[in-house]
Amino acid sequence: MENNNNNSSDASQWSVFKSQHCRIWFGVAQQFDSTGKTTDVFRVMHSYKPRLNSVDGSEIEHSNVYYYDDDRGTVTSSPRCGPWFYKEEDSITIGFKGVKHPKWPNTKFIFFPTGSGIMFNNSAVNYGSVETCVKLFVLHPQRPNIRLSVMVEYCELTLQSCKVYFENSDGWKSPFWEEQESHDLITPITPLTSSVVSRQTIDFNLNFSSSQEDPKPLQSDHVFSFDSDSIGSIFDNAPSDYLSFNPTKNVTITCPKFMKPNVNSSDGSLNGTQRAASFVAVRWNQAPDNCASDVIAEFDLDTRFKSLTEIHYKHSTVEA
User: Could you tell me which residues come within 8 angstroms of residue 27 by beta carbon, excluding any fewer than 6 positions away?
Assistant: First the structure.
């Protein structure tokens, strides 16, 4: 097993953003309400490309186009469409630590060297009524053209909606996602069925650690738990004040119904087991490739981002 602990610089954050996310992502999006019920389905194109006057790639233009099958049609102009112009010089400002959003200064991106990452903000700077926004980007460990993105939005610290984007940078037609949707659910991740291939963590200050190892049987300490009291797997045994649902049979999302842990929506009473942090997490079984990824974002009691963890698994081949 190989372990690495170091600090990811702002320059390397920009490099990952430019090399692994600066492309056109074509995808199908599903929107869900605070109970996990589907409220909308549409197509979206997320375009990241170097500005024409930026020959060295130090400026990136980001725009979105939304495609609806109803009377909304194609949307190219709205607060959600941009364009926004990212500048490398803004993201390497001393002390910023991450890639800075050009319009919302309190919104930033933090990436692993392998490309997966998070976008988050904790103030009322986003469009509409959204106050707190968390978006997880999960790159397929073997297919750099495939990305799963999950956005969770809160207003007054209460969950409003979840959006899931099934993305492909090779065009609208995606053999991977077509096969993924037609594939049966993979056996749940357990010590009997899965092996940990790698694990990496990065925190708010860009302190980074990783372990790379040959696949071996999953041990109990590899299963992500809420805290030392062993509440259980964040995906399999979420507390009552969390929403945990499957937007598709091979994707699981777990997130707090309220960003302040233990607060009930109506009477302010405590709800659930006392915890020192909250989590937004996604588990993605990459069915066609017999592997899986967990990405878990941790926030403190003041809803400030603490760290991001990514775990890759390989599923065992079980003969009948």
Answer: 43, 44, 45, 46, 147, 149, 165, 166, 167, 168
For 199, other C-beta atoms within 10 Å of its C-beta total 19
User: Residue 109: helix, strand or coil by DSSP?
Assistant: strand
Which stretch of 29-33, 262-266, 271-275, 286-290 has the lowest confidence by average pLDDT? 262-266
| Both tokens assigned to 216 | 């071996």
CB-based contacts of 146: which residues, under 8 Å, 6+ apart?
139, 140, 167, 168, 169, 174, 176, 177
Neighbours of 31 (CB within 10 A): 17
What CATH number does the domain located at 2-315 have? 2.40.128.20
| Euclidean distance between CA atoms 261 and 269, whole angstroms | 11
DSSP per-residue codes, 221-242: GGS-BSSTT---BTTTS--TTE
Query: Which of 63, 56, 145, 147 has the alpha carbon at shortest distance from 102?
Result: 63
Identity (one letter) of the amino acid at 138? V
| Domain regions of the chain by residue span | 2-315
CB neighbour burial string for 235-272, b if at least 16 within 10 angstroms, e if fewer: beebbebbbbeebbebbbbbbbbbbebbbeeeeeeebb
Residue 320 has pLDDT above 50, yes or no: no
**If DSSP codes are grouped into helix, strand and coil, which group holds residue 154?**
strand
Average pLDDT over residues 68-84: 94
